[in-house]
Amino acid sequence: MKRYRGILALTILGTWLASGLRALAEPPALSVTTPMPPPHWALLERELLRANTQACQEFFARYFDERGYLRCVTRWGGDDGPDDAIENCNDWPILHALGAPDSILQMYKKAWEGHLRQYTEAKTVEVPFARDGMYYKEFPVTFDWQHNGEGLTVFNLQGLSDPGDGNFQQRVRRFAGFYMNEDPGAPNYDPKHKIIRSLFNGSRGPLLRKATALDWTGDPIEVEHRFRLGHGERNYLEMLAHFQDYTNIVGDHPLNLLATSLALNAYMLTGEPKYKSWLLEYVDAWRERMTANGNIIPSNVGLDGKIGGECDGKWYGGVYGWSFSVVVPQNGRIDHRNRQYWGIVGFMNAFLLTGDDRYLESWRKQAETINAQKKMIDGRPVYPRMYGDNGWYAFEPQEYNFNALEIYYLSMKPEDRRRVPRSGWLDYLDGKAPKYPEDALQSNLGNIRQRVQGMRRDPTTPDTRLADDPMKYNPASVTALIELMLGGIHPGHRAAVLNCRLRYFDPATRRAGIPEDVAALVEEMSADAATVTLVNVNQVESRTVVVQAGGYAEHQFVSVSSGDRTTPVGAPDFTVKLAPGAGIRLRIKMNRFVNQPTMAFPWDRTAER
Q1: Angle formed at CA 502 by CA 33 and CA 365, multiple of 5 degrees
Q2: Is 434 exposed, middle or buried (0-12, 13-18, 19+ CB in 10 A)?
Q3: What is the 8-class DSSP label of residue 356?
Q4: Which residue in 252, 261, 541, 563 is deepest, having the highest Cβ count within 10 Å?
Q5: What does the alpha-carbon distance between residue 105 and residue 101 come to, in Å, rounded to a whole number?
C-alpha cells in the first residue's frame, strides 16, 4: 500500500507541534535537548559494535585473500562446500545494518564476489552435475535448501544496507527467476502442481533421480592427518557412509520453502507483483497440504502433486523427512534428521507480506497435533519428534515447540507466548529481568574475545583447511544488538530475512544503521506499541537518527509520546535530532504488517512520493 509521511514536531525545550496542518511531505522531526548521562547499556552497545568491527577485520585478513577468495581447499559436498565458504561472513550484513562501519559492508561484499568466482572456477571430477563449475550463473548448480539456504544467508540480507548495488539487483531478479521458470535451463517449479520438483534444485534445474552418496559427499579427498571434518568422519569412506541413505530427493520438501526468500527480496526491491503472487501461491499450496494431511506438513510431495507421491504414498518419507533417522558411521548411533520445521521461513515470508494469521495457525495446529500424541513413561509425559511406518517415535520430555518464538514474535498473542521456551529477552520485555541488557551485551563481548583467541590459535593452513573450518571463529556477535536495539529476532542461517520492530538510518551519511555515538534500547513491546530509549553518548556533537517501523517499513507508526505529550505520525518513519549528551524515552503506537515491505531507504521513499 502507498505510504505517506505524517508530521511529528516534538521538542523538549519548546517548539511542539502547533497545528496539524503542515504539508504531509515535510519530514517528521523530534528535537531532543534534555541531557541523559550515558547509561551502561548504551556504552556497551557502542563497544560491542566497535569490538565486532575490529575482530571481523582481523578475521577477514587471516582467512580471505586480496581477491576475496577463502584460503582453503575448495570442494563440493554436504560435509564441506561452497555454502560454507560464504557462511564465514554470517551476520556481517546485520552488523553493518545495525551501524557498524562501512568496512564491514566492503569486506563481506568482497568475500561474496570472491567466493562466486572461486566456486565457479572450482569443478568436480566425479560428481556429475558440478563438473563445469560448482556455481553456474552465480548460483549453486543443484543442491538441497538446507545448504542453499545457509549459503545465501549473507546475500539475502545485503538489501538491508546496499539495495542499490547493481550486481545485487541483477542477482535478486535472476535468482528468483530460477524458481519462477524464467530461466529455461532451470525448470525447478511446476506451476500446475505448485511444487518445486526435487529436493536438489538450483541454476541447472532439479535433479530428477535418486541421489547417490557421491552426489552429497563430493569427490574423494584425503582426510586422515590432514582435515578434521565437522561431522567427525575419520576418512572418505565414512563420509560416503554418512550420506548413504540420502537417496529419496525427487519431489517437493518443506526445505524448498526457503526459496521463497528469493522472491520476497525481489518483491521488496522492485515492487513487481509477480514475485508476491508466486510466493503466496507456493506457500498457500503447502498450507493446504498441511490441512489435508491432518495438520502435519508432509515431507514429500510427488511429481504428480500428491502427498507422499515419490515415497510409496508415505507423507513422512524422503531425505530430511519425518522418518529420516540414519546411522552415524563413526559410532553406530541413530541420529534423527527431520528438517521439515525449517519450512516456517516460507510461511513467515507470506505473513510479512499479508499479516494473515492463517500462516501462523498452520504451525500452531501442527504443534498441537504432535503434542496430543504424548505418552507417559515412568509417570512423566513425553512427546514425539519423528514419524515412521510404526507411528510416532523419538519421544522427548519437552513438548514439541519448534518455531514457537517465531510464531509469538509475529503474532504477539499471549497464548503463543506461553508456548515459547524460557527466554531472558522476553522476560526483560515483560519487566522481569532488568539486568538482561547488560548481561546479554557483555556475553556477546565475551563471545568475540573467545572466538578471536581461537582464531589466533588456529593451526590450519590453506592446504589443510576446509571451507567450514574458520566458521567457528567468525567473531560477529549480533544477537543481543538485534534484540535490544531493534526489538527483533535473529533470522538464523537459513535464508530468512530480518524481522524486527524498529530500524535506524543515518541521514547525515545517507546509510543504514544507527549513527555514530547513538544507542537504542527497546524496553517494551506489545502487538500495537513499543517503547524505546534513544541516547547520544557524544557530549560535544549532536546526532540525527531516522527511526523506521520494521525491518522493511512493513509497519506504520501511529503516534509517538514523551512525557505527557503525544503527536500523530501516520508514517513508517520519523526523525529524532539528539543534542550533545541528550536522550529520550519514546512510547510509540503502531500498526503492524499494514505496509508492503520495501528495501527502499526512508529518503528514497520520500522522493517516490
Answers
A1: 150
A2: exposed
A3: -
A4: 252
A5: 8
Provide the CB-side half-sphere exposure for 262 (13 A, CA). Answer: 24
Exposure of 517 by Cβ count < 10 A (0-12 exposed, 13-18 middle, 19+ buried)? Answer: buried
6 pLDDT tier (thresholds 50, 70, 90): very low
Count other C-beta atoms under 10 Å from residue 110's C-beta: 18
Give percent of the chain with pLDDT exceeding 70: 95
Beta strands in 193-327 (DSSP E): 195-196, 325-327
Report how far residue 188's alpha carbon sits from residue 185's, in angstroms, rounded to the nearest whole number: 9
Angle subtended by helix axes 166-177 and 260-270, to nearest 10: 130
Q: How long is the chain? A: 609
Q: Where are the alpha helices (DSSP H) in 322-400?
A: 344-354, 358-371
Q: How far apart are the first and last CA of the chain?
A: 12
| Cα dihedral 291, 294, 296, 300 in deg (nearest 10) | -80
* 3-state class (DSSP) for residue 523: strand
DSSP string, 329-350: TTT--EEE---GGGGHHHHHHH
Identify the residue whose cell numbers are 582481523.
58
* 9 pLDDT higher than 90: no
State yes or no: pLDDT of 95 exceeds 80: yes
Residue type for position 414: P
pLDDT at 567: 87
Q: Which residues, 6+ apart, have CB-to-CB distance to 275 below 8 Å?
A: 176, 180, 263, 264, 266, 267
Contact 119, 135 (CB under 8 A): yes
Q: What is the pLDDT of residues 511-560, one digit of tens each?
A: 999 999 999 999 999 999 999 999 999 999 999 999 999 999 999 999 99
Digit-coded pLDDT (tens) for 358-378? 999 999 999 999 999 999 999
Closest CA to 534 of 16, 17, 38: 38
Q: What is the pTM of this model?
A: 0.95
431 CB burial (10 A radius; 0-12, 13-18, 19+): exposed
pLDDT recorded at residue 261: 98
Task: Tell me which residue of 255, 275, 300, 320 sits closest to 179, measured CA to CA.
Answer: 275
Grid cell, residue 125, equals: 571430477
Q: In DSSP terms, which residues pair with 436 in a beta bridge?
A: none
Give CB contacts under 8 A, 24+ apart, made by 382-385.
385/336, 385/338
Q: What is the DSSP letter of 422?
A: P
> Distance between CA 236 and CA 165 in Å, rounded?
41
Strand partners, 370: none
Are the CB atoms for 9 and 28 separated by under 8 Å? yes
